[in-house]
Amino acid sequence: MTLRAFRIVGAAAADALEALHALVDVRGALEEAGAVTVWLDQALPEMPFDGLAIHELPPAAANATSTGLEHDRAILVAKDLLVRPPWVERPIGFGGIELVVPRGMAFGSGEHDSTQAALLALHAAWKAPTSFADVGTGSGILALYAHVRGCRRIEACDVEEPAVLAARELIPGSEVTLGGPETMPWRADFVIANLTAAEQHAALPGILDRWSQKAALVLSGMRAHEVDAVASRLPRVASRLTRGAFTALTTPPSA
Ligand SMILES: C[S@@+](CC[C@H](N)C(=O)[O-])C[C@H]1O[C@@H](n2cnc3c(N)ncnc32)[C@H](O)[C@@H]1O
Fold it and tell me: CB neighbours of 140 closer than 8 A, spacing ≥ 6?
């Protein structure tokens, strides 16, 4: 398939990307400060935002092939928490928790700030829960954290089939379903979801329904102006953790 790529520059570039996710099938997106490049299989729809400069990349540049390995590196999320693809060596001397995630078709190689905020909140709230659920698992990176920490009852879901396949392969023995939180088979003690704010609002009833409240709930993926509206729908909020443009909220277990 030949894709078209559009570079959108301006203060509302991130909002434009969010709007596009609702309007069309965004096949790829590269987010930078004040700019996004999106790959679509169609023309770019009208963007109802002021002050955006938009230009289409030449077809050859839009469809340039790359191995995807050029910029791979180990990502030190915290001093004792590292994410790396299998083909990158563990840094010499590192003795902390390692998440080895192959870069594939699914979101979640550890580079995105929303993933890092989720991982940091998860790391901070971890108290060896007996069960764990990951809503919008992507590559399975957050569920992998639970697996590496010894949790043996892990479920996850994603609305994208490539993500479901990737997560099943990454975490054998886990229960990964295609669909939203309501498709997950049991109530889990620790629940995590790294979704856009719009997705959080839509999925929240299902997320809360799948949470036993015996361990923490972590919601990540909100931009600063979106955090309060999500927080107001939670029973309580113990902490907010921000990485780059994204915040993760942690709700503690009920007493
Ligand atoms: C931002 S990615 C997060 C991936 C990974 N968990 C991470 O933290 O890097 C969000 C994922 O949620 C999925 N998704 C969006 N809405 C969903 C919903 N209502 N239920 C399940 N998955 C959803 C998307 O397909 C995507 O794979």
Answer: 101, 106, 108, 134, 156, 163, 166, 167, 168, 170, 171, 174, 176
